[in-house]
């Protein structure tokens, strides 16, 4: 297991189908071939929830249960809590002195999120600088591979800039650069057709959704607004239902035939939505059952999180010690 992988999520709500198809299945596979750490990034969750911290603290165990329910094994993957690793905050402080405000403001991912959250001039300092915190997370574990969506590529670029600057200050290779691992499936749109499925936008199907919630969500999905009658030819491009069928229907040949029928005309949107509903209900039913079982034992979940965090602490503290020395601040070492 030569590859070291770091991945994670902000615990601001339960994980959803976008997480599942974009990264969770990938993480399950990677734990057999790599040394993988999953970080529950609760401190980063506060960057836009500082005044409503219960939204973060109240979802930590939900996210952990989501991981376990999809097949993440804490015996093969270290699962740890960001706030339980003080070295990450220390590294963030060091790195903040190497990154300019203008560099953060140019980050396209941050710019898009600031616009989407409509902060205006009231941008929390923590939110503007959270890419520095992500760089601290990645480098603390000396991760050389980071599973991300394409919208997170600017974060990897900034992390490697920090690595090079620290190494320049140190005069040696204290930190290692990382590379992104993109998922095979592109970013999943929300059920409302918006570009991204998001908990904050309310357009997500969570892993804990029951059958009725799934059915309601699928009924709301956009198809082709010009497909007014069954016999009308319909468009597949931009059709959210087909996007989801591509991602979740195991019968690829069936989806291909349905696309052809839809484009010719004669296939009802309701038939497509019925098929998608059945696919998603079949996928999420066992996950939902396992998730509920894990959540029924909060002490067991906390034990898993405590064990993983303790494993991660020594590794992150060693990285912080080296960076501290690079800045000449290791007086008491």
Automatic annotation (TrEMBL):
The record's section on PROSITE patterns has: AA_TRNA_LIGASE_I
The keyword Nucleotide-binding belongs to this UniProt entry's keyword annotation: yes
Q: Name one GO biological process term.
A: tryptophanyl-tRNA aminoacylation
Q: Which controlled-vocabulary keywords does the entry list?
A: Aminoacyl-tRNA synthetase, ATP-binding, Ligase, Nucleotide-binding, Protein biosynthesis
Q: Which GO terms fall under molecular function for this chain's record?
A: ATP binding; tryptophan-tRNA ligase activity
Query: Which top-level group of life is the source organism from?
Result: Bacteria
Gene Ontology CC: one annotated term: cytosol
What SUPFAM superfamilies does UniProt report for this protein, alphabetically? Nucleotidylyl transferase
Its top-level enzyme class, in one word, is ligase
Reaction it catalyzes? tRNA(Trp) + L-tryptophan + ATP = L-tryptophyl-tRNA(Trp) + AMP + diphosphate + H(+)
Extract the CDD domains matched here.
TrpRS_core (cd00806)
EC number(s): the record gives 6.1.1.2
Entry annotated with the keyword Ligase: yes
Known InterPro entries for this protein?
A: aa-tRNA-synth_I_CS (IPR001412), aa-tRNA-synth_Ic (IPR002305), Rossmann-like_a/b/a_fold (IPR014729), Trp-tRNA-ligase (IPR002306), Trp-tRNA_synthetase (IPR050203)
Q: To which protein family does this belong?
A: Belongs to the class-I aminoacyl-tRNA synthetase family.
Which NCBIfam families does this one have? trpS
Q: What is this protein called?
A: Tryptophan--tRNA ligase
Give the species: Desulfoluna spongiiphila
């Amino acid at each position: 297991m030569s590859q070291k992988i770091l991945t994670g999520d902000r615990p601001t709500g339960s994980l959803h189908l976008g997480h599942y198809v974009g990264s969770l299945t990938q993480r399950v596979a990677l734990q057999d071939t790599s040394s993988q750490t999953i970080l529950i990034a609760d401190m980063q969750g506060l960057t836009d929830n500082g005044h409503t911290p219960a939204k973060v603290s109240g979802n930590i165990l939900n996210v952990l249960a989501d991981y376990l329910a999809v097949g993440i094994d804490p015996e093969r993957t270290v699962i740890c809590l960001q706030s339980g690793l003080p070295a990450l905050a220390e590294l963030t402080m060091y790195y903040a002195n190497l990154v300019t405000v203008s560099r953060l403001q140019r980050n396209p991912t941050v710019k898009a999120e600031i616009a989407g959250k409509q902060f205006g001039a009231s941008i929390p300092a923590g939110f503007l600088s959270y890419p520095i915190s992500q760089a601290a997370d990645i480098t603390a574990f000396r991760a050389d591979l980071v599973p991300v969506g394409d919208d997170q590529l600017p974060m990897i670029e900034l992390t490697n800039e920090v690595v090079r600057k620290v190494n320049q200050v140190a005069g040696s290779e204290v930190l290692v650069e990382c590379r992104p691992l993109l998922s095979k499936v592109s970013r999943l749109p929300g059920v409302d057709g918006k570009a991204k499925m998001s908990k904050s936008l309310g357009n997500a199907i969570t892993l804990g959704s029951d059958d009725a919630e799934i059915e309601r969500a699928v009924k709301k999905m956009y198809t082709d607004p010009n497909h007014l009658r069954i016999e009308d030819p319909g468009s597949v491009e931009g059709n959210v239902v087909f996007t989801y069928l591509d991602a979740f229907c195991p019968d690829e040949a069936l989806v291909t035939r349905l696309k052809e029928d839809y484009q010719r005309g004669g296939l009802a949107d309701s038939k497509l939505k019925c098929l998608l509903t059945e696919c998603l209900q079949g996928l999420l039913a066992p996950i939902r059952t396992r998730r509920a079982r894990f959540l029924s034992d909060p002490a067991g979940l906390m034990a898993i999180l405590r064990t993983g965090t303790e494993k991660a602490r020594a590794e992150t503290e060693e990285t912080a010690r080296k960076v501290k020395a690079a800045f000449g601040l290791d007086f008491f070492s």
